[in-house]
Amino acid sequence: MWARVLAGGFLLAQMPSLSDYYIPPSSQVPVKIISGSGSKELAHEVSGYLGIQLARVGLSNFADGESSIKIIDNVAGRDVFVIQSLCQPIQDNLMELILMLETLKSSNCRKVIAIVPYMAYARQDIPEKVKPGIPSAEISMLLEAVGLDAVVCVDYHGEQAKGFFNVPVTEIKPYSVAVEYLKSKNLKKPVIISPDIRGFKRAYAFYEIMNEEGIDCDIALMNHGGTSMSYINKHRRNEYVGDVLTGRDIVIVDDMIITGSRLMNALENLRKRDAERIFMYATHGNFTNEAIKKIEKSSLTELIITNTIPLKQNSYKIVSLSLGKVIADVILEVVTHSELN
């Protein structure tokens, strides 16, 4: 059985088909939606919510491994949204996106908007001492060079990475989807935890939505690799956290999980503080082969991710929440904005 996928408020036991998402449109959406290899299922969900069929595109490889892109439908004069996550295989998906953007521009479409649920290289947003280049900036320039008119991303790793684009950037922060799911867990005196200072802004946004939705909670920041924590209550007073987690449910909030090593360190320290159930929310589940094994053997109650990256391995501890409707709503919003007209 596939990992659980939450779509449109329904928990699905197996991978859905287009008919699971289709909502008859009240009027035709005047855009074309194209899927890359990295986001096929998500693109089907989005097109279903919009009530339109995915535009036909031929994706293939030559014998030597070179990619071939052919746009089958007529896109002349249309706004085209290309949905493509830059997940594994990253270089193949990146090259495919570049070729799709260039091919669409050559086909005389009006505007090309890339929806990149997972943006690879976003973590590499500052120059290293040994080399002056900034990979995140270079990816932005590459995409713009082939005709990108706007980009939509999901939970960018760093705010500064968005600034490398000269075209309009729309960022989706899908925390409300996770909060809606957590309502069903009957959390006991929950504490939202950021694993480091860089991610605290994200955790605080999550914390605010929790309280807005009627889930009374507090927030804490892990310091020094999790050996100590700063605790912030509703009155924003900083306190040292000792046994304050006793009998409380925890929600660790981060943008992505890859190897799971930082999660394991956090779990160890939280268990020492007698925390009850420990959940983790990470927007992007960019797992290595060993990460899921670590998670299943750990004391983590449940890992909640979204489907920005296709989940290739099942786990009873992982729940994947669909962003199909969220992205469909953003497309409708972008279409009506004057910056693309």
From TrEMBL:
Give me the Gene Ontology terms describing cellular component. cytoplasm; ribose phosphate diphosphokinase complex
Record's superkingdom? Eukaryota
Q: Which reaction does it catalyse?
A: D-ribose 5-phosphate + ATP = 5-phospho-alpha-D-ribose 1-diphosphate + AMP + H(+)
Under the heading InterPro entries, the entry gives: Pribosyltran_N, PRTase-like, PRTase_dom, Rib-P_diPkinase
Task: Drop me one GO molecular function for this one.
Answer: ribose phosphate diphosphokinase activity
Keyword Membrane part of the UniProt annotation: no
Pathway listed for it?
Answer: Metabolic intermediate biosynthesis; 5-phospho-alpha-D-ribose 1-diphosphate biosynthesis; 5-phospho-alpha-D-ribose 1-diphosphate from D-ribose 5-phosphate (route I): step 1/1
Q: Is Endoplasmic reticulum there in the keyword field?
A: no
Pfam families, sorted: Pribosyl_synth (PF14572), Pribosyltran_N (PF13793)
Q: Quote the protein name from its UniProt record.
A: ribose-phosphate diphosphokinase
Keywords of the record, alphabetical order, are: ATP-binding, Kinase, Magnesium, Metal-binding, Nucleotide biosynthesis, Nucleotide-binding, Signal, Transferase
GO process terms (BP): 5-phosphoribose 1-diphosphate biosynthetic process; purine nucleotide biosynthetic process
Query: What is the E.C. number?
Result: 2.7.6.1
Q: What class of enzyme is it?
A: transferase
Write the signal peptide boundaries: 1-21
Q: Ribose-phosphate pyrophosphokinase N-terminal domain: from which residue to which, for each copy?
A: 31-147
Homology family: Belongs to the ribose-phosphate pyrophosphokinase family.
